[in-house]
Each structure stands twice: as structure tokens, then as C-alpha cells.
UniProtKB/TrEMBL annotation:
Coiled-coil segments: none
Species of provenance: Finegoldia magna BVS033A4
UniProt gene name: rnfB
Descriptive protein name: Ion-translocating oxidoreductase complex subunit B
Gene Ontology cellular component list: plasma membrane
Subunit structure: The complex is composed of six subunits: RnfA, RnfB, RnfC, RnfD, RnfE and RnfG.
PROSITE patterns: 4FE4S, 4FE4S_FER_1, 4FE4S_FER_2
Family: Belongs to the 4Fe4S bacterial-type ferredoxin family. RnfB subfamily.
Length: 283
């Protein structure tokens, strides 16, 4: 009996603690809205924060309890938005898919440098060193900070500048937020024309340091007034419905510096980038 006493005491204590824990779990139970759990299951789970909320859990709670739009998740896109709208009994919001685009094509053959940067490969460090190695104050520095933060392998450095693979881009905006020169913008996925320049300098200054920069000559706006405008020394393309494709193409062809970049050429660059990656892996 003396030998069994400790085991009996430990068993009794175990039962007592189990009862206490069971009581505490019921007493202090946090009620979770099952709708939040269901919405959370529908979200992709990237936890990228692109929606503006602290991860997918935060967005799920915001959709159910705070009226956040069902299309708040850029990673999930329209498919996820439609599922959420159906579950929440809300009207589906038809929003165009967007992707990131680097508004610079100043590769070494086209854009000059003030000095050769040999520091750590971080665009922010480069930018803070005498305003950056590239002469253009708005040109891509090509150190790859945007590449490092992309969780979807959607952006790479090709020939000295960043290039986005629109098929992989989820418009999470991480590359936009980390770029010290603010040259990465969101554009519509189906947009075929971009003014791939972000310089607001006068045309004569742009010509000094970049062969493919926008010089704000206004020819594009004259050729296609509905599609192009020039503000603060920089041309902008209006991707609106009803534009005459022939007029847009004329504007693209007449651009003296080829700063207006057709999407077809971007796809060609993407193909080259993938080919280069494949060659490196095989080597």
C-alpha cells in the first residue's frame, strides 16, 4: 500500500488538473466567428500584407466584421473575390487585374552612370550614396532589392534593370514599397503600352544621361490626344476603352527616344530572361 500511495496521489492530482483545465477552457473561451474561419480558408494564405491588413487572419476578420471589400486580396484575384462575395452575400466587385511594371529601360547601353557602384547589392544603400550610381535620378539602380522581397519569383534583374514577369506578379506591392526611387507602378494586366520612364527632368537634361528616356516632346499627345498626355515633363498613357489602336501605334512609332514601350517587346524580354535563367541552371 505504501508503494501505491504516490501513484494514487499523482493520479488524483492529474484528474483534478484535467477538470480545472476543462473548466478554465470553457470559462475563458474566446468565441470565434465561424464565418471568419471560413473566409480565412478561402484566402490564399500568402500573408503578404498587400491588402493593408496584418496577414490573412486580419483580412478575414476585416471582411466579416469591418466591412472590408471582398476584393481586398490582390493575390487571390477575381476568383477569390467571387468566392468571398458569394459566401458573404455581397455583390461581386469586378476589378481589373493589375501587375507591377518597372518604369525604366535604362540598361547600361542606354543610360550613363556617375560612378561604378561596388557596395552591397541593395538599391537603398546605392541610392543614399551620392544620390545613386546612375546619372538619371529616377532610373533603376539594378541592385535587386525588389527581387529580394518578392515572394512569388516575379521580378528579376535583366541587363542591369529590374523586369517583372506579369504572369507571376500578384500585385502585392512589396517591390513598390521597397524601391527608393518609386519607379515601380501598378498597371492593368492587359495593358499593352507603357511609358517606361519616370524622369521629370527637362528633355535636354534627359538626353544627356539616357537615350531612351522621355523628353516630354509631346509628340505622343499630338498623335493620340485621348491616349497620351504630358505632365511635369513626363508622358503618361491612358489605358482607356475606345482608344483607336492605329492612333496609339502611330504615337508609339513616332516617339523619338522609344520611351513608349509596347507590351510585345516586354514579353520578348521576359522570354530572354527565362532563357538566361535556364542556361545558368544548366551550366
Amino acid at each position: 500500500m505504501t508503494i501505491l500511495t504516490p501513484f494514487i496521489i499523482l493520479g488524483a492530482l492529474g484528474i483534478l488538473f484535467a477538470l480545472l483545465l476543462g473548466f478554465a477552457s470553457k470559462k475563458f473561451e474566446v468565441q470565434v466567428d465561424r464565418r471568419v474561419l471560413k473566409v480565412r480558408e478561402m484566402l490564399p494564405g500568402a500573408n503578404c500584407g498587400a491588402c493593408g491588413f496584418p496577414g490573412c487572419d486580419g483580412l478575414a476578420d476585416a471582411i466579416v466584421n469591418k466591412g472590408a471589400p471582398c476584393n481586398s486580396c490582390p493575390v487571390g484575384g477575381k476568383e477569390t473575390a467571387d468566392k468571398l462575395a458569394a459566401f458573404m452575400g455581397a455583390d461581386a466587385v469586378d476589378s481589373a487585374k493589375q501587375v507591377a511594371c518597372v518604369m525604366c529601360q535604362g540598361t547600361p547601353e542606354y543610360a550613363t552612370e556617375k560612378f561604378k557602384y561596388k557596395g552591397i547589392m541593395d538599391c537603398r544603400v546605392n541610392h543614399n550614396l551620392q544620390g545613386g550610381s546612375k546619372t538619371c535620378p529616377d532610373g533603376c539602380l539594378g541592385c535587386g532589392s525588389c527581387v529580394d522581397v518578392c515572394d512569388f519569383d516575379a521580378i528579376h534583374i535583366v541587363n542591369g534593370i529590374a523586369l517583372v514577369d506579369k504572369e507571376k506578379c500578384t500585385s502585392c506591392k512589396k517591390c513598390i514599397e521597397i524601391c527608393p526611387r518609386n519607379i515601380i507602378k501598378l498597371v492593368d494586366y492587359d495593358q499593352d503600352v507603357y511609358v517606361r520612364c519616370n524622369s521629370h527632368d527637362k528633355g535636354k537634361d534627359v538626353r544627356q544621361y539616357c537615350k531612351v528616356g522621355c523628353i516630354a516632346c509631346g509628340i505622343c499627345a499630338k498623335m493620340c490626344a485621348d491616349g497620351f498626355s504630358v505632365e511635369d515633363n513626363l508622358a503618361h498613357f491612358n489605358n482607356a476603352e475606345g482608344l483607336d489602336p492605329e492612333q496609339v501605334q502611330k504615337a508609339v512609332d513616332k516617339c523619338p527616344t522609344k520611351a513608349i514601350y509596347p507590351g510585345l517587346k516586354i514579353k520578348e524580354e521576359q522570354a530572354k530572361a527565362k532563357a538566361q535563367e535556364a542556361a545558368v541552371k544548366e551550366a
